[in-house]
TrEMBL record:
Gene3D superfamilies: Acyl-CoA dehydrogenase/oxidase, N-terminal domain, Butyryl-CoA Dehydrogenase, subunit A, domain 2, Butyryl-CoA Dehydrogenase, subunit A, domain 3. This is Acyl-CoA dehydrogenase. Keywords: FAD, Flavoprotein, Oxidoreductase. It holds the Pfam family Acyl-CoA_dh_N. Residues 122-216 form the Acyl-CoA oxidase/dehydrogenase middle domain. Residues 6-116 form the Acyl-CoA dehydrogenase/oxidase N-terminal domain. The keyword Kinase does not apply. Its cofactor is FAD. Belongs to the acyl-CoA dehydrogenase family. PANTHER family: ACYL-COA DEHYDROGENASE (PTHR43884), ISOVALERYL-COA DEHYDROGENASE, MITOCHONDRIAL-RELATED (PTHR43884:SF12). Residues 228-375 form the Acyl-CoA dehydrogenase/oxidase C-terminal domain. InterPro entries: Acyl-CoA_DH_CS, Acyl-CoA_Oxase/DH_mid-dom, Acyl-CoA_Oxase/DH_mid-dom_sf, AcylCo_DH-like_C, AcylCo_DH/oxidase_C, AcylCoA_DH/ox_N, AcylCoA_DH/ox_N_sf, AcylCoA_DH/oxidase_NM_dom_sf.
Length: 383
């Protein structure tokens, strides 16, 4: 594995950093307080290529590699994780599912719109009674002539109230995970309702919603993949999603490092900068180590994807380590800031609130350990 970035990758990172420093960083606290990012930034992000990365050019994307995608997600995580989630759910979870499992018509219909963010997608897997145990979901789709009729409820769905299309996983037979099928549901379909969940600890700028499906009728052409293949599609897509979450976490750790160094070198106590105290350097060294270790796990995983090698376990390791590192780093960065770290004058409190969900969604830390443990031992601890 070559650890150096190509000039193109460096150039994209610099472009992304510059854009986000101008368009996101000055506004992120306001968006956090308003509990909504200003969606006017979405088309600007699309113009830069954030949504089209890894969607092939023939479908209106940029067709980039996954190392570049990871860099983009890192920069988004450093600037504002709320923005990172919009991209990685819409063009990542939804776009990749369509790219790898859609019919040619579905790809032609949706991918150019997702790649340019003229339409946004959401990924509807979790339900009130099934989170980690998603294979037991109970939303159902019933065949009716050429159509399917969907009933059920989804919980904690990122982009839920902003999305034009929802990728909904529903039960088509009682056959456990093998009885789940995926559907592309336009969110303006009669019987579809999204209700925003307010009062989140972090990611406040991002719309998280409950979805209600009450007799939503879609044609069979809205089915993504084969009947009964839905759970497999969801799990495969989440492997790549974990790479995006992990990359965003690297951005959080990097942001914490920069904030802690800046504060420690400016703030004086006992007549000298607090950076000169060994115990403060200890905190900063831990954040720096977390940044390097998390980034290397992320790049290793992105490199495996780019080379067409199996990457599922590497994605779990990157996601597990980077998400726990993001919480640790934000906590350490607050410690460096003292009381100033506890209020919103500095970015570190928001980093901690945003980081906290990263160990929960797209598979909790415990679920990542079970995946890694299964790969190491050959024993499935899920059942
Ligand atoms: C802000 C936010 C955004 C989200 N976005 C989306 C989205 O866009 N789409 C979507 O489908 N979902 C989304 N989710 C849902 C998220 O993926 C779930 O919350 C997550 O998978 C955990 O499920 P749960 O909350 O039901 O927790 P549970 O599964 O009930 O887990 C509770 C606890 O039990 C542990 N646990 C469960 N099973 C085991 C086991 N077998 N062994 C050991 N420990 C176990 C877990 O690790 C956890 O600690 C989002 C959640 C949040 C908070």
């Amino acid at each position: 594995m070559d650890l150096s970035l190509t000039p193109e990758q460096e150039a994209f990172r610099a472009l992304a950093r510059d854009f986000l420093e101008r368009e996101a960083v000055p506004h992120r606290m306001q968006w956090d307080h308003d509990e909504s990012v200003d969606l006017a930034i979405v088309p600007k992000m699309a113009e830069l290529g954030f949504f089209g990365l890894t969607i092939p050019e023939e479908y209106g994307g940029v067709g980039g590699d996954y190392v570049t995608y990871s860099l983009a997600m890192e920069e988004l995580g450093r600037a504002d994780s709320a923005l990172r989630g919009i991209v990685s759910v819409s063009s990542g979870l939804v776009g990749k599912s369509i790219l790898f499992h859609g019919t040619e018509e579905q790809k032609q219909e949706w991918l150019p719109q997702l790649a340019t963010a003229s339409k946004l997608g959401c990924f509807g897997l979790t339900e009130p009674d099934t989170g980690s145990d998603a294979g037991n979901l109970t939303s159902r789709a019933t065949r009716d002539g050429d159509d399917w009729v969907l009933h059920g409820q989804k919980l904690f769905i990122t982009n839920g109230t902003w999305a034009d299309v929802a990728l909904v996983f529903a039960r088509t037979s009682p056959d456990g995970p093998r009885g789940v099928t995926a559907f592309l549901v336009p969110t303006d379909a009669p019987g579809f309702e999204a209700r925003e969940i307010k009062g989140k600890l972090g990611l406040r700028g991002q719309a998280t919603a409950e979805l209600f499906l009450d007799g939503v009728r879609v044609p069979d052409s809205a089915r993504l993949g084969e009947v009964g293949q839905g759970f497999k599609i969801a799990m495969g897509t989440l492997d790549k999603g974990r790479l995006a979450v992990a990359s965003g976490c690297v951005g959080i750790v990097q942001g914490c490092l920069e904030a802690a160094v800046a504060y420690a070198t400016e703030r004086t106590q006992f007549g000298r900068p607090i950076a000169s105290f060994q115990l403060v350097q200890d905190l900063i060294a831990d954040i720096s180590l977390d940044a390097d270790a998390a980034r290397l796990l992320v790049w290793r995983c992105a490199d495996l994807v780019d080379r067409g090698e199996p990457y599922g376990v590497a994605a779990s390791k990157a996601k597990l380590f980077a998400s726990e590192a993001a919480v640790r780093a934000a906590n350490n960065a607050i410690q460096v800031h003292g009381g100033a770290g506890y209020v919103d004058d500095y970015p570190v409190a928001k980093y901690l609130r945003d980081a906290r969900v990263m160990t929960l969604y797209e598979g909790t830390s415990q679920i990542q350990k079970l995946l890694i443990g299964r790969a190491e031992t050959g024993v499935n601890a899920f059942v």
